[in-house]
Amino acid sequence: MNGWVLGGIIVVAVAAVVLRRLIGEPVNPRDLWVPPVVLTGIGLWILVRTSGLRPADYAWLVAGCVLGTALGYWRGRAVVVFEKGGALWQRYDGRTFAVVIGSLLVMAGFGLVAARLGMRPEARPVQLGIGLSFLGEALAVTRRGRRAGRLTDRSPAPR
Predict the structure, then answer these.
(1) What is the pTM of this model?
(2) CA 28/CA 111 separation, integer angstroms
(3) Rounded CA gap, 72 and 49, in Å?
(4) Residue of 135, 17, 16 whose CA lies nearest to 75
């Protein structure tokens, strides 16, 4: 698939998720977990197809994956989780976007340092970073939902 087409699809998907969460939506485990798993899978697929990576690239990659997941978890802690009509809902607010901006700055700084110290750009698939960030967010929201007693493995998809 053409890189521009794949990039466009990812931008549209991420924008749709962010818009829905800005408006507010019921917490649906499928909607919470499937997009980040798919994006992470695409990123890993791109990474596997990349040849010539050095051990230093893998070290930076692992550090970036851990940092991206942790920043996503931080963002997930800033998501407003509330009960509405007997269902658990989630919504992004100003604090969530402040965390997003902080996360982007941290990841940009990390990327600059990694590039200056020799990490190859091919070792940093954007899809992997976005997917892991949303996985971190899903972990935090799921944990908060379970703690509230409103989200279980067998939760029906509220609509």
Answers:
(1) 0.83
(2) 33
(3) 26
(4) 135
The phi-psi region of residue 95 (left if phi > 0; otherwise alpha if psi is between -120 and 50; otherwise beta) is alpha
In the structure encoding, which two tokens stand for residue 42, read together?
Answer: 């695409």
Q: What is the DSSP letter of 59?
A: H
- DSSP of 67-112: HHHHHHHHHHHHSEEEEETTEEEEE--HHHHHHHHHHHHHHHHHHH
CA 18 from chain centre, in angstroms, equals: 11
Contact 88, 27 (CB under 8 A): yes
Q: Write out pLDDT tens, residues 99-144.
A: 999 999 999 999 999 999 988 888 888 889 999 999 999 999 999 9
What backbone torsions phi and psi does residue 137 show, to the nearest 5 degrees?
-65, -45
